[in-house]
Amino acid sequence: MAIELKQPRKSRPAWHKLTVSGVRALTADAVEVTLAVPEHLRPAFDFKPGQHLTFQRVEADGSEVRRSYSLASTPRELAAAGTLRLGIRSIPEGTFSGYANRRLLPGDVLEVLPPLGHFCTDIRPDRHYGSVVAGSGITPIIAIATAALEAGAVVTLLYSNRTEDSTMFAAELRELERVHGDRLRLHHVRTRADGPTPLLTGRLTPERLRQVLGTAVDAGEVDEWFLCGPYEMVLGVKEVLEAAGTGEIHTELYTV
């Protein structure tokens, strides 16, 4: 008798309607969006720091728009307050990002898929996590950094922005520094203004990163790296870190 073995079919993620509970300006062109998650949906929306949500919206002409944005909050916040937070920067001709920045209001309802993505890790208190990030790429990184610091780990963060005013989640990073002290080693890089030092002023090119790794940051101490930003930056940083023989490297490409 022949027996046909079939792989079990994976159920497709279901869309859920979540209510916007807050919209807060982060910079002139970026907002933080907070979603309220009913208690019965919290297991479905449980996530690892670094994962993202996908939104679906039907335009006036009937076309369907889907966009994904990383979570800036932590699983602990979801469990305690029933909220998810995201950072959304408006980009030129960005259909959903423009809507979120200019028209989205508390009380609006969005169609959302449960969290997805592999830009994450099992956070451990005995690890040192490093990150090189540009612009809105900070969104998944602040979730990873917060969870790691709360677990007792060490975090090194190189964060590149045009100016101080264009820096998303600047206040949250200052608070993490205040609470966790020298377990957060934060280095701001400015591309269109003076940075804290000449070394941290200008584009974060591979050449500049090699200098930074030889002075401000010890790559040999880092167990895992998270790189998030535009393709050219992420690729260049990855090559430098690989040549330095550092720890495991995770990458995510972002429109900043």
Automatic annotation (TrEMBL):
Gene3D superfamilies: Nucleotide-binding domain of ferredoxin-NADP reductase (FNR) module, Translation factors
Entry keywords, A to Z: 2Fe-2S, FAD, Flavoprotein, Iron, Iron-sulfur, Metal-binding, Oxidoreductase
Segments forming domain FAD-binding FR-type: 13-122
InterPro entries on file: Cbr1-like_FAD-bd_dom, FAD-bd_FR_type, FNR_nucleotide-bd, MRET, OxRdtase_FAD/NAD-bd, Riboflavin_synthase-like_b-brl
Record PROSITE patterns: FAD_FR (PS51384)
Cofactor(s) essential for the protein: FAD
Keyword Oxidoreductase: yes
Signal peptide: none
Source organism superkingdom: Bacteria
PANTHER family for this protein: 1,2-PHENYLACETYL-COA EPOXIDASE, SUBUNIT E, NADH OXIDOREDUCTASE HCR
Protein's name in the database: FAD-binding FR-type domain-containing protein
Organism: Glycomyces endophyticus
